[in-house]
Design a protein that fits this description.
The protein is mostly helical. The protein has one domain. Helix content is 76%, strand content 0%. The protein is built from four helices and no strands. It has helices at residues 2-24, 34-42, 45-62, 68-75. The longest helix has 23 residues, at 2-24. The chain is elongated.
Length: 76
């Protein structure tokens, strides 16, 4: 149940932060160059939240760092 909660929280954070990053691309219509827009995006909090949420999401889904055989050896 805890993994489901972590999955839903990280998925929600990733969707919100990537949505905001897509909205920042509207600065292109104001005449800013791609390099300026991408530098701005890379220095926002949403960019770091998206990366962190993606790492947490991958670790929950792909089950990194959990050795199922170690628990069986300890109980025997």
């Amino acid at each position: 149940m805890f993994r489901l909660f972590i999955f839903l929280m990280s998925y929600g954070l990733m969707i919100l932060s990537i949505g905001n990053l897509i909205l920042y691309l509207n600065y292109r219509t104001l005449g800013y160059s791609w390099s300026v827009v991408l530098k701005f995006i890379m220095h926002t909090t949403e960019f770091y939240m998206a990366i962190g949420a993606c790492i947490v999401l991958c670790s929950v889904v792909l089950d990194f760092g959990f050795d199922k055989t170690a628990n069986l050896k300890d109980k025997a």
